[in-house]
From TrEMBL, chain A:
It is a lipid-anchor. CDD domains: Rab5_related. It comes from Eublepharis macularius (Leopard gecko). Pfam families: Ras (PF00071). One of its GO terms (cellular component) is recycling endosome membrane. Belongs to the small GTPase superfamily. Rab family. This is Ras-related protein Rab-17. NCBIfam families: small_GTP. Its cofactor is Mg(2+). One of its GO terms (biological process) is protein transport.
UniProtKB/TrEMBL annotation, chain B:
Residues 64-85 have a biased composition (Basic and acidic residues). Residues 433-539 form the FUZ/MON1/HPS1 third Longin domain. This is Vacuolar fusion protein MON1 homolog. Plays an important role in membrane trafficking through the secretory apparatus. One of its GO terms (biological process) is protein targeting to vacuole. Belongs to the MON1/SAND family. It comes from the Eukaryota. Residues 301-401 form the FUZ/MON1/HPS1 second Longin domain.
Length: 220, 576
C-alpha cells in the first residue's frame, strides 16, 4: 500500500494541463491481455476518439484522461501494456499499484480468454479483492460472426470471479466510452466506500481512549 | 567447398572505362595468395601513406587536380572477377560438405529479370508460399534459428513451413562444427550464403545482391543485436541453457515486423553500412539551444537524452560520467530508432519500456521513455534511464523540455525544417552530381562523439524502389572494395551502366559519390572539389560537431562554442 501512495503522489505532481485542477482523484488503470486483442485500439478509441491499425506496443504506453462525473472529476492514468510474452517479466512494473485492470480478450480467439484468466490469477496474487476493480473486456464485437467466445461463457466466468464483464468494439466504437465510464463510476464508488469506512472507523467509540480517560478521572 | 563460380557481379555493370596504367594493386595481388593478409594491408597502407604525405593531405585543392588524378590511376579498378576470386579465398568451408549444398542453393538460379519482376512483394510476407518460385527469387533471405534447429525467424514466408530447410542449415552448421571448424559461407552461381553463430542462435543470409560476405555478416549481426535489444543476451543464454529446444518465437511474436523493418532499412539506409548516424541539418544556434534544453531537464539515473526528427538525430546529451568510459554507439541508436519506428505511436501516449543497448551492454536493460512532441509524430524525444521506477520523474523531464520548446518556439523552427526534404543535392551546385554519402572521420580525440554522416535526398533517377536498390547495391559494392580485408582501397573510380561512381577514403573522411554517366574523370574531380568545399562550408549545419553533455562546468554552452572556433578546421581543408 505504501507503494501505491508513492505512485499517486508523484503522479499528482505532474498533472496534465488539460485536466482541471479540481480533479481530486487519480486512478491508475492498466490494460492487460494477450497480443493483438485490441488493448491499444481501445485506449486510442477512448482517448483520441478514433481508430487506426496499430503496430505492436513496446513495453507500455501511458495516457492521461480526465472524466467528469456528476459527483467529481477524476483523472485516469491509463497504462496500455504490451501483450507480447517477452514483456511479461516486466509487467508487474506496470500493474503494481493499479486501482483498476481491464483484462482484454478477443471474442474471436478462445485462447485470448484463457490468457486473460492467467492474467486474472496473477492479479489475484498481487492484490486483495477489494484493492482493485477488474473488468473482463471482450473486444472486436464487430467481428461477431467469427465469435469463438460466447457472451454467456465469459459472463459466467466473470460472475464466479466477482468481476465485471463487457463487450466492446474499438473499431466500430461500441461500448468503449461506456466501458471507461463504468470503470470511472466504479472507482469513484469504491473510493467513497473506502472513505466512509474510514469515517465510520473514526466515529466509533474507542474503548481504549475512554479507559484511559476514566483512569484519569479516578486519579483525581 | 570452394566457390563454384565467381561470376558476380552480373551483367556489364562493373565494366571498366579504360585501361591505361597497370594498377599497383594488381602488381601486389599475385603475392596475395602467398603472403598473409596483414602484410598486404601493411604494404598497401604504406603506399597510401606515402602518397598522402607527398600531397600534404590528399586534397589540397589548390593544386589538387594532379594529385587526385595520380591517386585515381593508382586505384584503377581491375577485373571484378579477379577481385571476387580473391575474396572467395576467405571461404574456409570444408570440401566434403558439398553434398549438403544442394538443398540449400535456392532454386535453379532464377535470372535477374525474374528477380526484378518479383520486386513488388505481397503485403504480408508471412503468408507467402515457400515452395513458390517467387519466394526463391527474393533478393535476400534471412533466417534465424536456434542451435536445436528450431526456426525463429524468416524474412519471407512462415518459419513453420521452413522448418525442414532450417533443419538442413543446422545440419550443415553442426556437421562442420563436429570437425572443430565453423562454417562461414557458401558461394553458388548466383548466391552467397553467409552463416553467423552467436551464442545459441544461428543466423543465415542467402543473398543474390552484390554485397560482400563481410557486409552480409554485418547485417546478420544487426539482426542478432536487434533481437538482443528486446531480450538481452543474458536471458537468451539462460533460456537455452535451461531448455535446448525452446521455441524463441514465443518471446518474439509481434516483433517480426521490427526485424522486417530492420532488414529493409539495412538495404536502403547508408547509416547501417557506415555505422554512422544521420543528423538533421540544423542551424548550430538552434541545435545548441535544444541541447542545453535537454541538458537542463535531467533527473537522477537518466543517462541519455536523445532528440530525433524523422529518424534523424537532432541532438543528444549524455551523462558525463558515462561518456568517460562508454558512449552511445550508432548501432544502438539505429536499433532503438528502428524499434520505435515499428511501434504504434500517437502523440499523447508516453512509452515506458525496457530496452537493451547491445553494444553498450548486451546483458542489461535500460528503461526508455519515448514520447512524440508534435501532432504528426515526427519529433521524438527518447530518455534512457537505468531506474525502472523512474517513469514519473522522467516524464516530468519531458514536460520541462516540452515547455521550454513551446516558450522558445523551437518546435516550430524544427518542423519548418522538416517540411522540406532533408536537402537537395542541387545545393552543391554541381549538375553532374547525383548523390553522395559523406562521413567525416576527423573527430577530435577529446570529443568521443557519435560517428555521423550526411547525404542528400535521393532524387532524379533514383525515385523508384528498384532504382534505389540498384544505387545502394553499387554503394555496397564500392564499400566492400574499399573495406576489403584482403586488399583495402583508398579510391575507386567506377563506371557503371547508368552512372559513374567514385569512392574515396582518407584519414579525414569517407566519401561515396554518384555522378551522371557522362562525367569525365577531370569533371568528377572538379565536382569533388566543389562538394568538399560545400561540405566544409555547411559542416556546422550538417553535423553535430561538439555534442553537449550533462556537465558540471558552469557554462557548457559557451565553452563548447569557444572550442568550436578553434577546432573548426576540418583538417582536410586546412590548406584552404
Amino acid at each position: 500500500m505504501a507503494q501505491r501512495t508513492g505512485w499517486t503522489e508523484q503522479a499528482s505532481s505532474c498533472r496534465d494541463a488539460s485536466c482541471p485542477k479540481g480533479s481530486s482523484h487519480i486512478f491508475k488503470v492498466v490494460l492487460l491481455g494477450s497480443s493483438s486483442v485490441g488493448k491499444t485500439s481501445l485506449a486510442y478509441r477512448y482517448v483520441k476518439k478514433d481508430f487506426q491499425d496499430s503496430l505492436p506496443t513496446v513495453g507500455c504506453s501511458f495516457f492521461n484522461q480526465c472524466v467528469t462525473l456528476d459527483a467529481a472529476t477524476i483523472k485516469l492514468e491509463i497504462w496500455d501494456t504490451a501483450g507480447q510474452e517477452k514483456y511479461h517479466s516486466v509487467c508487474h512494473l506496470y500493474y503494481r499499484g493499479a486501482n483498476a485492470a481491464l483484462l482484454v480478450y478477443d471474442i474471436t480467439k478462445k485462447e485470448s480468454l484463457e490468457k486473460a484468466k492467467v492474467w486474472l490469477s496473477e492479479l489475484e496474487k498481487e492484490f486483495l479483492q477489494d484493492e482493485i476493480i477488474i473488468i473482463l473486456v471482450g473486444n472486436k464485437l464487430d467481428l461477431s460472426e467469427e465469435r469463438e467466445v460466447t457472451v454467456q461463457e465469459a459472463k459466467e466466468f466473470a460472475k464466479t470471479k466477482c468481476i465485471l464483464h463487457m463487450e466492446t468494439s474499438a473499431k466500430s466504437d461500441v461500448q468503449v466510452t461506456e466501458l471507461f465510464m463504468t470503470l470511472a463510476c466504479e472507482l469513484l464508488k469504491r473510493k467513497e466506500e473506502q472513505l466512509q469506512a474510514t469515517h465510520w472507523k473514526k466515529s466509533r467509540i474507542n474503548l481504549q481512549e475512554t479507559t484511559s480517560h476514566r483512569a484519569k478521572c479516578c486519579q483525581i | 567447398m570452394e566457390a563454384e563460380d565467381l561470376g558476380l557481379p552480373p551483367k556489364g555493370g562493373m565494366d571498366l572505362p579504360e585501361d591505361g596504367v597497370d594498377p599497383p594493386e594488381q602488381k601486389i595481388s599475385p603475392g596475395c595468395t602467398e603472403t598473409g593478409e596483414d602484410e598486404l594491408i601493411v604494404a598497401l597502407d604504406k603506399q597510401v601513406e606515402l602518397s598522402a604525405a607527398q600531397n600534404n593531405g590528399p586534397l589540397s585543392v589548390a593544386d589538387g587536380k594532379v594529385d587526385v588524378q595520380e591517386e585515381l590511376s593508382e586505384a584503377r579498378e581491375e577485373s571484378s572477377e579477379k577481385d571476387l576470386s580473391d575474396s572467395a579465398s576467405t571461404d574456409n568451408t570444408l570440401e566434403d560438405s558439398c553434398e549438403f549444398s544442394r538443398p540449400l542453393v535456392m532454386g535453379g538460379g532464377p535470372s535477374e529479370e525474374e528477380e526484378v519482376a518479383a520486386q513488388p512483394r505481397p503485403a504480408t510476407h508471412r503468408d507467402e508460399d515457400v515452395t513458390a518460385e517467387s519466394w526463391r527469387a527474393h533478393r535476400k533471405h534471412v533466417f534465424v534459428l536456434s542451435e536445436a534447429g528450431k526456426p525463429i525467424y524468416s524474412r519471407y514466408g512462415n518459419e513453420e513451413a521452413l522448418s525442414s530447410t532450417m533443419g538442413v542449415m543446422m545440419a550443415l552448421v553442426s556437421f562442420i562444427q563436429s570437425g572443430d571448424n565453423s562454417i562461414r559461407s557458401i558461394y553458388s552461381d548466383d548466391r552467397k550464403l553467409v552463416f553467423v553463430q552467436q551464442g545459441p542462435l544461428v543466423l543465415v543470409s542467402v543473398s543474390s545482391t552484390l554485397q560482400s560476405e563481410q557486409q552480409l555478416r554485418q547485417e546478420l549481426l544487426y539482426v542478432y543485436d536487434q533481437i538482443i535489444s528486446m531480450l538481452t543476451q543474458a536471458s537468451i543464454t539462460r533460456i537455452f541453457e535451461r531448455k535446448k529446444n525452446y521455441d524463441l518465437r514465443r518471446l518474439l511474436t509481434g516483433s517480426e515486423k521490427i526485424l522486417d523493418r530492420l532488414l529493409n532499412l539495412v538495404e536502403s539506409d547508408p547509416c547501417f553500412l557506415l555505422g554512422a548516424v544521420r543528423c538533421l541539418p540544423l542551424q548550430p544556434p538552434l541545435r545548441d539551444s535544444l541541447g542545453s534544453l535537454l541538458q537542463k531537464a535531467i533527473t537522477p539515473n537518466l543517462v541519455f537524452s536523445i532528440l530525433v526528427a524523422r529518424s534523424q538525430l537532432v541532438t543528444t546529451v549524455q551523462e558525463k560520467t558515462v561518456i568517460d568510459d562508454c558512449r552511445l554507439e550508432p548501432t544502438d541508436l539505429h536499433l532503438l530508432l528502428n524499434l520505435i519506428g515499428a511501434t504504434s505511436a500517437f502523440q499523447t501516449g508516453e512509452i515506458w519500456t525496457p530496452i537493451c543497448l547491445p553494444r553498450f551492454n548486451p546483458d542489461c536493460y535500460f528503461y526508455a521513455y519515448i514520447s512524440y512532441l508534435d501532432a504528426d509524430c515526427t519529433v521524438c524525444l527518447i530518455l534512457l534511464s537505468t531506474d525502472k521506477e523512474s517513469f514519473y520523474s522522467v516524464s516530468d523531464c519531458k514536460k520541462r523540455i516540452e515547455e521550454g520548446m513551446r516558450t522558445q518556439n523551437y518546435l516550430q523552427a524544427l518542423s519548418s525544417g522538416l517540411k522540406s526534404p532533408s536537402y537537395s543535392v542541387g545545393m552543391v551546385g554541381a549538375p553532374d552530381l547525383r548523390h553522395f554519402i559523406y562521413k567525416p572521420l576527423d573527430i577530435p580525440d577529446n570529443y568521443r562523439q557519435l560517428p555521423q554522416f550526411t547525404s542528400p535526398e535521393l532524387e532524379g533517377p533514383y525515385c523508384s524502389e528498384s532504382e534505389r536498390h540498384r544505387l545502394f547495391d553499387l554503394y555496397h559494392y564500392l564499400h566492400s572494395r574499399i573495406h576489403s580485408t584482403l586488399r583495402p582501397l583508398r579510391l575507386i573510380y567506377h563506371v557503371a551502366e547508368k552512372e559513374t561512381l567514385l569512392a574515396w577514403v582518407t584519414s579525414k573522411f569517407e566519401l561515396y559519390t554518384c555522378f551522371s554517366p557522362l562525367v569525365t574523370k577531370a569533371g568528377a574531380i572538379n565536382i569533388l572539389t566543389k562538394l568538399l568545399r560545400w561540405i566544409k562550408k555547411e559542416e556546422d549545419r550538417l553535423f553535430i560537431r561538439y555534442p553537449p553533455k550533462y556537465s558540471t562546468t558552469p557554462n557548457p554552452g559557451k565553452g563548447s562554442k569557444g572550442v568550436r572556433t578553434d577546432g573548426a578546421e576540418n583538417g582536410f581543408f586546412g590548406g584552404l
